[in-house]
């Protein structure tokens, strides 16, 4: 019995340590998420209230946890021990435009690897803008459906 | 006539903010903030190692149930999942799109209502479709 108790104490301590590490990671994640959200709002010429930014960054962190579990499942299902780009694309299967934009991003990454970087970078900028504008299309339609406009 | 002046002051504001961002956040080719792959790797690793530990514990508790399936590969089975570098970059992009989409969609709603600030009600309205899309 004593040994068991000792073990559980050690395990508890480990878990507490784990949580503090994840707190640090979560804060770092939130900082990045906040700057992404604020930059995007500025790009749209909009102000954004702080609680909303915090809320979006929290959402994104929870989505990251979900994503990690999905990716692990997909990789294991394919009999692999490591996650590759296809797993990430499969995880974005719910929206065709999102999957398409990730596919073009994957092609850029693939193209960058074996060849020289300069030529590809110029081309990729145009692609980025094109995919960004494509992305908004399904959502306006979806929102109209939802809100009854 | 008043419009261009307003635009100018806005742009100055953006520059200041972007200067600050450069210290705290990684940038991509287009100078927009994005996630650092290392940070995402650390978060994923954290979740995966915890899952691997859980799997290990479950096997210790009921070794008979999984014995026939797992066989000799038990030690390999408990190794946490890993991700390759490009998969992480792609995950960063996916997460970045998640945030930018949330902001853009809320901004469109705010604009339609004639406001210039994104508030809670705007986020509430776009949230269901956003979560269905991701």
Automatic annotation (TrEMBL), chain A:
Domain of life from the UniProt record = Eukaryota
Biased amino acid composition, Basic and acidic residues? 105-117
Annotated InterPro entries? CENP-S/Mhf1, Histone-fold
Q: Where is this region: Disordered?
A: 1-21, 105-134
Keywords tagged on the record: DNA damage, DNA repair, DNA-binding
Xref: Pfam families: CENP-S
For whether the record's keyword set contains DNA repair, the answer is yes
Q: Which GO terms describe its molecular function?
A: chromatin binding; DNA binding; protein heterodimerization activity
List, alphabetically, the GO terms of the cellular component aspect. FANCM-MHF complex
UniProt-listed CDD domains: HFD_CENP-S
| Record SUPFAM superfamilies | Histone-fold (SSF47113)
Give a GO biological-process term: replication fork processing
Family from the record: Belongs to the TAF9 family. CENP-S/MHF1 subfamily.
User: Which PANTHER family does the entry link to?
Assistant: CENTROMERE PROTEIN S, CORTISTATIN
UniProt-recorded name of the protein: Protein MHF1 homolog isoform X1
Source species: Durio zibethinus
TrEMBL record, chain B:
Q: Does the keyword DNA repair apply?
A: yes
Any one GO CC term of this protein is: FANCM-MHF complex
Q: Give the superkingdom in one word.
A: Eukaryota
Keywords assigned by UniProt?
DNA damage, DNA repair, DNA-binding, Nucleus
Name its cellular compartments: Nucleus
Biological processes, Gene Ontology terms: DNA repair; kinetochore assembly; replication fork processing; resolution of meiotic recombination intermediates
Please give the Gene Ontology molecular function terms for this protein.
Answer: DNA binding
Coiled-coil regions in this chain?
none
Tagged with keyword DNA damage = yes
Region spans: Disordered:
53-83
* A Pfam match: CENP-X
Do you know which InterPro entries this protein is assigned to?
CENP-X (IPR018552)
Q: Which family does it belong to?
A: Belongs to the CENP-X/MHF2 family.
Kindly provide the name given to this protein in its UniProt entry.
Protein MHF2 homolog
Record gene name? LOC111289744
């Amino acid at each position: 019995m004593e040994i068991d108790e000792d073990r559980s104490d050690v395990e508890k301590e480990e878990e507490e340590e784990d949580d503090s590490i994840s707190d640090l990671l979560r804060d770092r994640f939130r900082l990045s998420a906040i700057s992404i959200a604020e930059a995007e709002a500025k790009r749209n010429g909009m102000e954004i209230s702080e609680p909303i930014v915090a809320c979006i960054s929290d959402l994104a962190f929870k989505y990251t946890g979900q994503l990690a579990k999905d990716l692990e499942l997909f990789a294991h299902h394919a009999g692999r021990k490591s996650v590759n780009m296809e797993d990430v694309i499969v995880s974005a299967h719910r929206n065709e435009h999102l999957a398409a934009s990730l596919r073009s991003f994957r092609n850029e990454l693939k193209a960058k690897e074996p060849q020289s970087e300069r030529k590809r970078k110029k081309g990729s900028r145009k692609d980025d803008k094109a995919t960004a504008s494509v992305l908004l299309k399904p959502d306006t339609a979806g929102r109209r459906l939802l809100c009854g406009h | 006539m008043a419009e261009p002046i307003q635009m100018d002051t806005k742009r100055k504001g953006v520059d200041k903010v972007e200067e600050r961002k450069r210290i705290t956040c990684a940038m991509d080719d287009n100078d927009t903030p994005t996630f650092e792959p290392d940070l995402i790797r650390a978060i994923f690793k954290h979740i995966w190692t915890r899952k691997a530990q859980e799997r290990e514990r479950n096997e210790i508790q009921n070794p008979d149930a999984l014995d026939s399936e797992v066989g000799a590969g038990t030690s390999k089975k408990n190794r946490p999942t890993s991700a390759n570098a490009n998969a992480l970059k792609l995950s960063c992009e996916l997460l970045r799109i998640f945030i930018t989409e949330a902001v853009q969609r809320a901004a469109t709603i705010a604009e339609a209502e004639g406001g210039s600030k994104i508030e809670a009600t705007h986020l509430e309205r776009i949230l269901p479709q956003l979560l269905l899309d991701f």
